[in-house]
Amino acid sequence: MQCSVTTDYSALGDAHRHDGCEAIVTDRIRKVLRYAARAIILTVAVLYFLIDLIFLSVVRPLRRRLMALMWVRRLSEWVGTLNRYAALLLLLVPWLILEPIKPIGFILFAHKHHLAATLAIVGGEVVKLTFFEQLFDMTKPKLMSFRWFAWCHNRWTAAIDYLRLQPLWHRMRDWYRKVRTWVRRLRLAP
């Protein structure tokens, strides 16, 4: 590689002498590292949300049973009487408490505590998604009165709708149905 940058470093001595190529190479290395870091962060974020989506499909039947309970219906009526700021606080506090369970599970897994990590991730996700989705549905009418929340919710819904139109989504749904049918047959087999 030819560098055309020439600088006179004679006043600084031999230790500081270079032809400018080091700066160009360092800049390129920084760009590559930045792109690699972005790719890693994006991959981690996608995996993080995929875990939520997978658990959400498992938790929905549990949520339907939970909604049938009388105290949950009373809670829903009480939430309906709250103002929008109280509804936002009611949604954020449990989320802030329950969301760190997944990273803690990953840390446990990295430290070779596989059973504890699995129990933390699965248990935390089931509780978080059951509880959080229930609270979200209860507070959603109030939260949609925030312009920023409505904008974010509409963008999120559009992104999920786009993903559901993709062929990979349909293949995953078909695979999920096959596995579910196979599990039901196993349970019914004598």
Describe this structure in words.
The chain is mainly α. The chain has a domain of 127 residues. The protein has seven helices and no strands. Helix 1 packs across helix 5. The mean pLDDT is 79.
List keywords for this structure.
extended; mainly alpha; single chain; 190 residues
Q: Note poorly predicted spans.
A: none
Q: Radius of gyration, Cα only, in angstroms?
A: 26 Å
Classify the beta-strand content into a percent band.
under 5%
Largest sheet descriptor:
none
Q: Structural class, judged by helices and strands?
A: mainly alpha
In short:
The chain has 190 residues and is mainly alpha-helical. It is built from seven helices and no strands.
Could you outline the blueprint of secondary structure elements for this entry?
Layout: H1 21-67, H2 70-80, H3 84-98, H4 101-110, H5 114-143, H6 147-165, H7 167-188
